[in-house]
Design goal:
Length: 109
């Protein structure tokens, strides 16, 4: 096989994307995740200082996102470490969800 045949086979195996595209997509998702976490932390700090409260909904969303990411990694890789991290984020997501619902109902500030 020549180089073009190998590249074509690799793209077919990867859904029409090459390795560089997959790597760029992975890096983009990683940086988006990190920036999202930093943004939520900043929003929580500012809301805590200005409004004297924290929006539990933002934290819930981030924990759910992390839970789904690690659960997916566990399903794909089958590593117990990924399952443990997913469960920790899942519990955190459940706690933030309850707090968010209580905040929406006016039970807590």
């Amino acid at each position: 096989m020549n180089r073009e045949d190998v590249l074509k086979m690799a793209q077919e195996e990867n859904g029409g994307r090459d390795v560089a595209d997959l790597d760029a997509q992975k890096r983009g998702a990683y940086f988006a995740y990190l920036i999202g976490i930093c943004l939520i932390i900043c929003v929580d700090i500012v809301e805590g200082i200005v409004l004297h409260r924290i929006s539990y909904g933002c934290n819930m969303a981030m924990f759910v996102m992390a839970f789904v990411a690690f659960w997916t990694k566990y399903r794909v890789l089958g590593k117990k470490h990924e399952l443990l991290v997913a469960l920790i984020y899942g519990v955190g997501a459940a706690v933030w969800t309850v707090l968010w619902i209580l905040q929406l109902c006016g039970v807590i500030a």
